[in-house]
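Appendix B. One record, verbatim.
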Amino acid sequence: MSAEITTEELQHLLETGETPRLFDVREDDEWEAGHIPQARHVALSRLPDSLGELDGEGPLLLICRSGGRSGRACQYLQALGYDVVNVQGGMLAWNGSIVQGG
C-alpha cells in the first residue's frame, strides 16, 4: 500500500511554496479540460514508456480523476522502486485553482 495525501494537504503544500513532484495520470482530454497548474502530465496509458520523465529527487505525488488510476500507477511505480504518494479523491476532491489546455 502506498502513502496517501489529501487534496487539502496538497493544496497547503503548494500554498506554502513547496514544489512537490506532482504528476497527473489522466488521459489527454481530461488533462486539457482542467489540471493543477503545478502538475506535469504523464497519462497512465503511457506510463511504462514515460519513466524517464519521473526521475529526480523526492516522492512522486500522483493524481487522477478520483484516486483509482493514480492508485494503480502508485502500485506499479512502487513495485519498480519509486517513492510514491497517491492524492486521495483526485481532481473530484480538488478545490484549488486549475488551468485548461495543454
